[in-house]
Design brief:
Helix 1 packs parallel to helix 5. Helix 2 links the parallel strand 1 and strand 2. It is built from 5 helices and 5 strands; from the N terminus they run H-E-H-E-H-H-E-E-E-H. It is α/β, with parallel strands linked by helices. It has a 5-stranded mixed sheet, sandwiched between helices.
Length: 160
């Protein structure tokens, strides 16, 4: 967790310097991204809120994304990660939206993605998305790598 907090400190510094805010939608990280950002003192200056969107019900209730809107979209995909990042940004009125969705393990998900598969997106101006494959069944290790990757993606966008 210390590595995540150190990375979150860099993100926090950039957000505070830019006087910008963030909202987070995460799935298989289970709140680790948000926890890292909130562990930094002064988080209220940049962190507006988050949602752990782990189930279909959570997607509908927390993100207001209907089953109809999901037609043809897999939950652990870059398209869905983009949708989450854009929706969380919009719902909170944040400068940035960050999302993660994947399969932490020890097995893959029902969509055919192997354990260690995760997609990420950052919305702010344009939306950037990426996919990571760790090829590991280690659930906790994947959750930590996914959170780290999401924060690194955000940091790269903040540094542009």
């Amino acid at each position: 967790m210390q590595e995540l907090i150190a990375l979150a400190e860099h993100v926090a510094g950039r957000l505070v310097q830019r006087k910008q805010t963030i909202a987070v939608a995460e799935s298989s990280t289970g709140g680790l991204i948000s926890a890292a950002l909130l562990a930094v003192p002064g988080a209220s200056a940049y962190f507006l809120g988050s949602a752990v969107v782990y189930t279909r019900d959570a997607r509908r209730i927390l993100m207001d994304i209907s089953d109809e809107a999901m037609r043809g979209i897999r939950s652990a995909s870059k398209i869905y990660a983009r949708l989450l990042a854009e929706r969380i940004r919009e719902r909170f009125g944040a400068d940035w939206g960050l999302s993660e969705t994947g399969a932490a393990g020890p097995t893959g998900n029902r969509y055919g993605d192997a354990a260690g598969h995760s997609c990420f997106a950052v919305a702010g101006g344009e939306t950037t998305a990426m996919t990571l494959e760790t090829a590991s069944p280690d659930r906790l290790a994947n959750m930590q790598v996914f959170a780290k990757t999401a924060l690194e993606l955000l940091l790269r966008r903040l540094d542009q």
